[in-house]
Amino acid sequence: MQAARTIxxxxxxxxxxxxxxxxxxxxxxxxMSNTMLSRIERAQRRCDADDLVAIAExxxxxxxxxxxxxxxx
Length: 73
Hints:
single chain; 73 residues; 5 helices; 0% strand; globular; Transcriptional regulator with XRE-family HTH domain; Cro/C1-type_HTH; Lambda_DNA-bd_dom_sf
């Protein structure tokens, strides 16, 4: 659940729509629709390890960032 929220936070901080992030993930070789990404962000779809790695790779962050959650500054 924490990873789902972190994905959404990171995506919005980077100024990306769900469609844009899903497109980046797809272009990296891991097909993902914006519907799939939306369901992951709302914790309605399980985020497998390969999904997590691909989603992290698109905005160039470590998968650990998604697992650890947002940092408070």
